[in-house]
Amino acid sequence: MIDKLIFGRFMPGESLIHHLDARTKLIAGFYFIGILFLANNWQTYALLTLFTFAVIAFTGISYRFFIKGVKPLIWLILFTVVLQMLFTSGGTIFFSWGPFAISSFGLINGIYVFIRFVLIIFISTVITLTTTPMDLTDAIAYILRPFKVLKMPVQDIALMISVALRFIPTLMEETDKIMKAQRARGVEFGEGNLFEQMKVVVPIFIPLFVSSFNRAEDLADAMEARGYQGDKKRTRFRILQWHWCDLVAGFVLVALTVGLVTLRIS
Fold first, then answer.
1. Is there a contact between 95 and 27 (Cβ–Cβ < 8 Å)?
2. pLDDT in tens, 62-78
């Protein structure tokens, strides 16, 4: 599971997506998630899927790597899809039992929800895989800069988000170590009824929480020892700059939006 989880990791590369400005990738990611909800037929979802796979191709990272990255979240996605199918009525009714029903509209809606979740995960993962944590922090701080007028600690918020993304793989590795230690003591995961499985999870969460707090304390001590003060006006060693490829990315998103609206109306 550790090798399959790719969200939050950075992979160095020289692809076109790697060379995009971090602000461009972050804004484009949120913009893509926003226009994703405009899709309402198979043509629009096909266009968004082709676009997402084209973006992955430009990263230079294997498609198989991304598909494996979705597997740890597949049960959560399927659970959401099943709920969508059971509580969406309309069209031909295939099965009905009390408040639950499976209809043609429900099946189509479930497929669309599944595609939507997968595309969001793919695009979000593209951003983290091709952007260093430091660049991501600078991009978040730049985007949130207008909120400084409201006395919002923009730099601290950006740092917290970046650290949270950075420590996702670390926490997964810690979980894997704890599970191996519990297996060495005779604990069996995934066996028994639901109550027994919940009891088995408790010995994982407690040491994981303790380890997380210890890591957070060590990180805070290291930052204080280096004189970090987020509320002070700080200079930057790296300055984010826009390039021609960022402009091209903007035009591509505009073209995608036009195509999406056109297919939605037709």
1. no
2. 887 777 777 777 778 88
